[in-house]
Amino acid sequence: MAPEKSIQVTIMGRSYPLRVRPEDEALMYQLAATVDEKMRAFREAHPEQSELTAAVIVALSLAEALYEAREALRELDETFCEAVQELLALLEHPESVVALPEQPARDAI
């Protein structure tokens, strides 16, 4: 396992030291930039709210996006598994395949 690397990310003008795997460094900077952007947008839209409130709202927004992505992935996984099961059934029982009627040839334009 590669040794961790110390980096600093800045969110809302505050610096946060992190330890990351070297291969995750660029991603962590991108994630921090995304959090910073979302917090700044929230604070701009709601200047009366505290930085802590902005952080909580952004965390909830990101958690919701993660949940939706996981649900979409779960649905795709189910659809994929169903398709694989159907294909396996066809391979096990090729006699059940119904031939499609031949389509008339189309003239070239």
Name its key features:
single chain, alpha+beta, two-stranded antiparallel sheet, 2 helices, 58% helix, elongated
Structure, described:
The protein has 109 residues and is α+β, with helices and mostly antiparallel strands. 58% of the residues lie in helices and 13% in strands. The chain has 2 helices and 2 strands, in the order E-E-H-H. The chain has helices at residues 25-45, 51-92, and strands at residues 5-11, 14-20. A two-stranded antiparallel ribbon has the order 1-2. Strand 1 and strand 2 (14-20) form a beta hairpin. Helix 1 (25-45) packs across helix 2. The chain is elongated, with a radius of gyration of 26 Å.
Oligomer state equals single chain
- State the end-to-end CA separation: 61 Å
The value of Rg in angstroms is 26 Å
Task: Name the average pLDDT.
Answer: 92
- Report the sheet-strand fraction: 5-15%
- Helicity range of the residues? 55-70%
Overall 3D form: elongated
- Structural class by sheet pairing and helices: alpha+beta
- Give me the number of helical elements: 2
Low-confidence blocks of residues:
none
Major sheet: 2 strands, antiparallel
Elements, N to C (H/E): EEHH
The side-by-side strand order for the widest beta sheet comes to 1-2
Number of strands: 2
